Amino acid sequence: MPHHHTVLSEILKHVPHARFEELIQTYEADGGSRRLDSKTQLVALLYGQLSGAPSLRAIVEELESHAAALAELGCDPVKRSTLAEANRHRPAALFGTLLEAVMAQAHRGLRRHMDGATYLIDSTSVRLSALSGRWARFSATACGAKAHVVYDPDADRPVYAAVTPARVTDLTAAKAMPIEAGATYVFDLGYYDYGWWAELHEAGCRIVTRFKTNTPLRLESERPVPPGGALLSDRTGFLPERQASNRRNPFQARVREVRVRIETGTVLRILSTDLDAPAQDIADLYKRRWAIELFFRWVKQTLKIRHFVGTSENAVRLQIAVALIAFVLLRLAQATQDTIKSPLTFARLVRTNLMLRRRIDQLLPAPARPKQRQPTRLQEVTA
Q: Which end of the chain is less crowded, N or C, counting CB atoms within 10 A of the terminal residue's CB?
């Protein structure tokens, strides 16, 4: 009988281990007196994400029961106290930079010309306990953090992620994001800033967002739209020359306004710097924002990003980074087989079989062949 590795081992094959070792040296993450090395910490936290273990204690106890399989990965069973200490003190930037490497690896075979790339920008909030109040206090009664993500809907993968306290605005986080020249960026009203738009435009990026209700358009021209449809108007013009306090608007480029009525009856004023594409294409691009909402929902429902196993800022940042690493590893592993099409089904089967010795492409049993009916005695006599 051929020897198979565990499903967890198959998932971990997609971690860029050589790069991870370089990062460990860069951050000096395994120095000092800590007794839990970075690799074992990563394996333990990924196990927690993929298995759905609800707490540090559950992670530790379940891994102890799989000591033999853990040894094949070059790891020893962990203690709850040492894992908690590593989550508090080992630099979260180590795992954040590893996430960047994993995302880059996932996109290496999917590179497109940048003028064809579409990225969605948004954030999602996670509620934290009062024990995180020292760094994550948002109001008198709430503590929280935000994950700010740039998401590629065509590849169904994030390309950038950052974690901040919930009080940090989406726009502040967006201004720290890298800009890819020639790409299309789709975002909502949380990123309404003429100066930032000017930077994107100067980099040759296409912008698709939404007008605020009180933002006028200095009309230059209007194009016809099909009568009786969801498209109500298609106009080009300029944004106001002045901002508040009579400051000059740094974004002086010509823009497009496409008004569209959505299913609820609400009329949206969609803003774009694309002056040539059909109006329906602009409306469809804005509608794609829903894909990043589905991504956030999937991560929150399938991985461990609602309940945190640590309360310090370092531990929360670290856990969110590992959750996103788990997401990308699942997508990479799913791409190695063509039997299971649904990402949710694949994630559930990985969870069920995580520590079993089974190939990724054999998580579902092969369909049984129909049994051939044996001839009866009467049929044999007749024949």
A: N
Q: Where are the alpha helices (DSSP H) in the chain?
A: 7-12, 17-26, 38-51, 56-65, 67-72, 80-89, 92-107, 133-136, 170-174, 194-202, 279-287, 290-302, 313-334, 343-353, 377-382
* Angstrom distance (rounded) from CA 8 to CA 73: 9
If you compute the radius of gyration of the chain from its CA atoms, what whole number of angstroms results? 26
Structural domain boundaries in the chain? 7-96+306-362, 188-288
Least Cα distance to 159 among 178, 135, 133 occurs for 178
Sequential pLDDT tens for the chain (383 residues)? 355 789 999 999 999 999 999 999 999 999 754 579 999 999 999 999 999 998 999 999 999 999 999 999 999 889 999 999 999 999 999 999 999 999 998 877 555 444 479 999 999 999 999 999 999 999 988 999 999 999 999 989 999 999 999 999 999 999 999 999 999 999 999 999 999 999 999 999 999 999 999 999 999 999 999 999 999 999 999 999 887 767 899 999 999 999 999 999 999 999 999 999 999 999 999 999 999 999 999 999 999 888 888 999 999 999 999 999 999 999 999 999 999 999 999 999 999 999 999 999 989 875 555 556 665 555 555 55
Residue 125 φ/ψ, nearest 5 degrees: -100, 145
